[in-house]
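Exam revision sheet. Question 4 asks you to relate a sequence to its structure. Input first:
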Amino acid sequence: MKKILIFSLVMSCSVQSADLEKGKAKAEQVCKTCHGMDGIGIDSSYPKLTGQFADYMEKALKDYRSGDRNNAIMAGFAATLSDEDIENVAYYYSTLKEQRLTDLIVK
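Answer key, structure tokens:
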């Protein structure tokens, strides 16, 4: 229980120091081809990042980078990201809200 609490506190502190604009810029350089700038992805085979918890995305990206999580494509992209890049990108996607079709219909 203590490990979970400490991990949560550490991750929440890193998210608070993340830079939204840097995250958006890095997402445009590295992530948008597959996940899009809206975080919904180009097709259903790519996970939605929109509104995902930032600490979850940070851990996943760091795990791809270290090899603890196995996916050749993601490992290659994650290898190009610094810890700061990962924090910023995760924060950027966590702030997005998915637009529903009903939100887009003009009444």
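Marking note for examiners. The radius of gyration is 15 Å.
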